[in-house]
Automatic annotation (TrEMBL):
Catalysis: reaction(s): 4 porphobilinogen + H2O = hydroxymethylbilane + 4 NH4(+)
The protein's name: Hydroxymethylbilane synthase
Pathway info: Porphyrin-containing compound metabolism; protoporphyrin-IX biosynthesis; coproporphyrinogen-III from 5-aminolevulinate: step 2/4
Chain segments annotated as coiled-coil in the UniProt record: none
Gene assigned in the entry: hemC
Length: 307
């Protein structure tokens, strides 16, 4: 194990946390490693809303290029940021055991505004999924764009007059910055693969593939595959408010999926259960059900509006 495995990562505190998890798993097996921080396009432009600059691959492209150019050997990503179609010559090396999947609201004073009829709250998020789900529940509220890493977004929330902002539970808890003034949004279905971390490498790199195989978590791999299959079948290459969550209990896969219009006014959902050994294709089947219900029109409208 004389070769040094170069682990590429974004520079944010959360991304470094994720890279350190992979680093620890590799060094525990006796591999020699080195972290290589790389700035992504999504970390450079912190003003433009993600849907305007094309969210697919915005946080992964720079690391993919570093992999293909042999500057690094492994890239570590939040799995929800990874496009469903990987670049040629790049493959999943390992999907780590999943962490928390929920979203949460960080509020400024209290949450009484959520129960005040007619109150126009100001809520911040850069996610079209979170915006759509929030507007479906609170159509009178105003949504504001909020970009940057976790710490930057928390600082901006503190500086603005907004009532609150939406974050992923995993992002705040992993780096121990979840404020006391926060609540889990149990009603909000997460992004496909939210809470999961993936390591990718070059497809011909048998050394790294073998190294990562030891910590590949099969249950997380199955459930996130179902969610991403649902996403891939629905989205048609466009930024769309799609939510999906699958989990396994007593060898049964439980799946829920949703598609919203951008303003939350139109909504399609599906759920299904199946034995884990029969789970192949259920993400695709669930997406096709939503498309047949009328979801195809929503996807077409969003594509025309944003692509």
């Amino acid at each position: 194990m004389d070769k040094i495995i170069r682990i590429g990562t974004r520079e944010s505190q959360l991304a470094m946390w994720q890279a350190h998890q992979v680093n620890s798993l590799l060094t525990a097996q006796g591999y020699r490693t080195e972290l290589v921080p790389i700035k992504s396009e999504g970390d450079i432009d912190l003003v433009t809303p993600l849907y305007e600059i094309g969210v697919q691959g915005i946080f992964t492209k720079s690391l993919d290029l570093a992999l293909l150019n042999n500057r690094i050997d492994i890239a570590v990503h939040s799995f929800k940021d990874v496009p469903t179609q990987l670049p040629r010559q790049i493959v999943h090396a390992a999907i780590l055991e999943r962490g928390p999947v929920k979203d949460l609201l960080v509020y400024k004073k209290d949450t009484s505004f959520l129960e005040q009829p007619g109150y126009i709250a100001s809520i911040a998020t850069s996610s079209v999924r979170r915006k759509a789900q929030w507007l479906r529940r609170y159509p009178q509220h105003q949504l504001h764009n909020l970009r940057g890493n976790v710490n930057t977004r928390l600082q901006k929330l503190a500086a603005e007059s907004w009532d609150g902002a939406i974050f992923a539970v995993a992002g705040l808890e992993r780096i121990n910055v979840r404020p006391a003034n926060s609540i889990d949004l149990d009603w909000m279905l997460p992004a496909p693969a939210q809470g999961a971390v993936v390591a990718v490498c070059r497809e011909d790199d048998t050394y790294c593939l073998e190294a990562c195989a030891a910590f590949h978590h099969k249950e997380t791999a199955l459930t996130t595959h179902i969610e991403r299959e649902f996403l891939r079948t629905l989205m048609g290459g466009c930024t769309t408010p799609i939510s999906a969550y699958a989990y396994i209990k007593d060898n049964t896969v439980h799946f829920s999926g949703e598609l919203c219009s951008l303003d939350g006014s139109q909504f399609f959902s599906t759920s299904r259960e199946t034995a884990a050994e029969n789970a192949a294709g259920i993400g695709k089947a669930a997406a096709e059900e939503i498309m047949a219900q009328g979801g195809a029109e929503i996807v077409a409208q969003i594509r025309n509006a944003t692509c």
